[in-house]
User: Which sequence fits this backbone?
């Protein structure tokens, strides 16, 4: 690659005399990216300053001696570790089975159902899990109410986390199997390898390469998981830092303590982030569920029996809550529902999340593009500083947990005003910040590929600025941009942190409504709300992929 | 006299394309398979190697039908264009896989591996990993593995396409020498008629899923059939 301009410089005299200027570099994506990075860093700095200011009012000695807090920190780490281990322990054999049995009828539909949790709002998933595996749920009724254990506490948190992260892990693992060249499977057939040999010689090296990355991703997601712990955990024995911070601010109105806790979590997240450094940055969702190459050991009787067992187990575990959502939800519609409230909540959530989704996609794209733009010819100190800041800007929201970001925005905004308009703006800003790392992770591999393919040609023909976006980047990145937009929007629709910090009885989204109904054990209404929210998310996701991504 | 290796009315459907191969090969010969891209050359080799399964017809070796025999048990071994080696195993280990797929080797088998590496000129390279070898050296390791498997039929699927001209000639001559030494029957897919002219006594021309002509290499290369003239650019 022609980095740092040397190859260009050597031709500079010829270029200046013979080349007309083909386009005006009005707003290059690189400069947009710099502005975006500067804004993000400024906002995050403001949040940090505000948190430090708030925390200085509290007493740090209170925190150190706080045995409750120590238990919370231990529980936070433990549940994240257990969730990660469980998800992966199931995901590896399930993925292996799906990769090996690459051609059976209904595989596509099955994988679609299996990946539904990836776009499901946390609260919807919680309802499904409670309806299927709760004390009054389907399984309990099957086995006998009273015998079936309670879903609340560590067990429930783990079940809900696995419900989310098993499909995620499978989705991230399956592409690894597809990277195995077809020749390798043929070689395995030619050399007469058994499934055991194949595991040792082909699959194990593969897993060793990709599993740490996926484990780090799942660990970080579970470490900062909020809605699941708030709903299924709570109480002194099963609470995480995110929930404790929320309780300090919302129930005790103890801002100094919340500030201190937020700083503590920031430090812990940074430590965890550094430990998993470089592992969590890239996840190529877009790779999807393709079919790996033909394997000779797929059709033996034991392979079929074993693989079917794993697939059926996984599908039942994920499918039962989905089925419960649908069945209970439909039944819930017969109950007396507050339709005007529901409609208003749906509209508010939709407006907030679409704006936030667009914002996050914009930030994610310009950061992804700018972080890799080869420097201009005169790569001075300023440019190099800006480039490292861009890299930093994309990672910062990852280091700050959603709740820490949320508290930051909450403090910054409520310092000046508590009008509803500013509350909505606060929720939007928070949702943008929370979704940026996901958009970045989704867009970066695609932007990288695109740069490798087209960058030299674009610079040769001086296709720059908006022209470059319109003619080159947009047509080739459209599907990935749409996926990022759709994912960011569905995250916004499921957001509970923003709405529960800034919201009030007049300002409610479907997520908030669902949370209230779940906490009040109004399961009939919750069932209907959960189904409506799920359909809204799926509808919006599909609409964005179709309208923005141009999918038919 | 019956052929040593025979494809008899071998049918295979690949997407929209119906292929039907008939081919007879004598023991100890070297046959080049040439023809346009997408004509089915690699499919023909995959059918003989046992990696694709014919919809109809059969593959015979010395009159025995091997169509239903699993790849590992066929008297055939295949060398692919790339990805022949496992990146995390050494050259010796990669060769050793040809003797036991779990790498549990006896002392005699270990000596076999060393001998095979010697025959391809890599006796000093046993402990290197593929990343530390050149493209030509990697293919030599793969050839060594073919040798230890002691299969009478060697299938080469454009194995030297990625190599430079000098290395390519060297590898062709190595294959030719090994064929004579071990009495192998060789079937080689190639893009370059020069490869065929150098080591193949016979050539099969494949177009649109059929063997259009199978004859002495010189007659095929001078054939007046329009498909062959178009392909060769004469």
Assistant:
């Amino acid at each position: 690659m022609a980095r740092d301009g040397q190859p260009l410089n050597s031709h500079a005299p010829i270029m200046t005399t013979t080349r007309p200027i083909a386009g005006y570099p009005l707003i290059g994506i690189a400069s947009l990216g710099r502005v975006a990075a500067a804004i993000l860093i400024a906002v995050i700095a403001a949040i940090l300053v505000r948190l430090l200011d708030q925390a200085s009012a509290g007493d740090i000695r209170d925190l150190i001696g706080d045995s409750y807090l120590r238990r919370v920190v231990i529980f936070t780490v433990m549940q994240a570790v257990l969730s990660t281990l469980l998800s992966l322990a199931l995901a590896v054999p399930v993925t292996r089975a799906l990769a090996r049995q690459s051609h059976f009828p209904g595989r596509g539909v099955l994988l679609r159902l299996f990946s539904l949790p990836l776009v499901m709002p946390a609260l919807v998933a919680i309802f499904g899990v409670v309806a299927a595996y709760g004390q009054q749920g389907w399984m309990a009724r099957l086995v006998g109410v009273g015998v079936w254990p309670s879903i609340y506490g560590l067990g429930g948190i783990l079940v809900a986390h696995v419900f989310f992260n098993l499909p995620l892990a499978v989705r991230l693992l399956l592409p690894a199997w597809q990277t195995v060249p077809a020749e390798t499977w043929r070689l395995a057939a030619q050399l007469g390898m058994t499934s055991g040999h194949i595991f040792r010689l082909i699959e194990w090296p593969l897993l060793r390469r990709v599993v740490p990355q996926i484990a780090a991703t799942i660990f970080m997601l579970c470490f900062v998981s909020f809605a699941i712990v708030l709903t299924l955990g709570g109480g002194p024995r099963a609470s995480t830092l995110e929930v404790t911070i929320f309780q300090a601010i919302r129930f005790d109105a103890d801002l100094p303590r919340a500030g201190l806790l937020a700083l503590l979590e920031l430090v812990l997240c940074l430590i965890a982030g550094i430990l998993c450094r470089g592992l969590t940055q890239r996840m190529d969702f877009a790779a999807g569920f393709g079919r790996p190459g033909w394997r000779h050991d797929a059709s033996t009787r034991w392979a079929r029996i074993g693989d079917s067992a794993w697939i059926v187990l996984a599908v039942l575990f994920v499918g039962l809550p989905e089925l419960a959502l649908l069945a209970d939800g439909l039944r819930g519609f017969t109950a007396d529902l507050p339709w005007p409230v529901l409609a208003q909540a749906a509209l508010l959530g939709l407006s907030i999340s679409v704006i936030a989704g667009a914002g996050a996609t914009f930030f994610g794209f310009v950061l992804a593009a700018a972080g890799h733009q080869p420097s201009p010819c005169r790569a001075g100190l300023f440019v190099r500083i800006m480039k490292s800041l861009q890299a930093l800007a994309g990672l910062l929201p990852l280091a700050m947990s959603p709740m820490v970001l949320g508290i930051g925005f909450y403090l910054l905004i409520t310092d000046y005003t508590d009008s509803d308009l500013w509350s909505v703006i606060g929720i939007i800003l928070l949702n943008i910040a929370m979704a940026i790392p996901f958009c970045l992770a989704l867009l970066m591999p695609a932007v990288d590929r695109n740069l490798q393919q087209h960058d030299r040609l674009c610079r040769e023909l001086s296709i720059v600025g908006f022209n470059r976006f319109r003619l080159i980047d947009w047509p080739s990145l459209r599907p990935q941009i749409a996926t990022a937009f759709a994912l960011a929007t569905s995250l916004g629709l499921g957001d509970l942190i923003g709405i529960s910090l800034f919201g009030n009885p007049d300002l409610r989204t479907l997520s908030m409504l669902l949370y209230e109904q779940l906490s009040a054990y109004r399961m009939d209404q919750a069932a209907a709300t959960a189904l409506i929210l799920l359909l809204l998310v799926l509808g919006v996701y599909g609409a964005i992929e179709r309208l923005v991504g141009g999918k038919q | 006299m019956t052929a040593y290796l025979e494809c008899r009315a071998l049918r295979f459907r690949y997407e929209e394309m119906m292929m039907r191969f008939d081919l007879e090969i004598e023991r100890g010969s070297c046959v080049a398979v040439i023809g346009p891209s997408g004509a089915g050359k690699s499919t023909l080799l995959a059918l003989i190697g046992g990696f694709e399964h014919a919809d109809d017809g059969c593959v015979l070796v010395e009159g025995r039908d091997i169509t239903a025999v699993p790849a590992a048990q066929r008297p055939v071994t295949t060398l692919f264009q790339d990805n022949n080696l496992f990146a995390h195993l050494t050259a010796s280990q990669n060769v050793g896989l040809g003797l036991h797929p779990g790498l549990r080797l006896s002392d005699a088998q270990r000596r076999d591996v060393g001998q095979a590496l010697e025959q391809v000129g890599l006796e000093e390279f046993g402990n290197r990993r593929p990343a530390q070898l050149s493209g030509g050296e990697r293919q030599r390791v793969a050839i060594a593995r073919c040798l230890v498997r002691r299969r009478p039929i060697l299938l080469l699927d454009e194995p030297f396409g990625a190599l430079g001209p000098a290395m390519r000639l060297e590898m062709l001559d190595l294959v030719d020498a090994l064929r004579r030494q071990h009495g192998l029957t060789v079937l080689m897919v190639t893009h370059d008629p020069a490869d065929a002219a150098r080591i193949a006594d016979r050539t099969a021309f494949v177009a649109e899923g059929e063997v259009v002509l199978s004859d002495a290499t010189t007659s095929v290369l001078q054939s007046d059939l329009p498909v062959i003239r178009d392909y060769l650019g004469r």
Q: What stands out?
A: The interface with chain A takes residues 46, 49-51, 70-73, 77-78, 80-84, 86, 88-89, 97-98, 101-102 of chain B (CB under 8 Å). The mean pLDDT of chain B is 92. The helical segments of chain B are 41-49, 91-96, 107-119, 135-148, 165-182, 193-199, 217-221, 226-232.
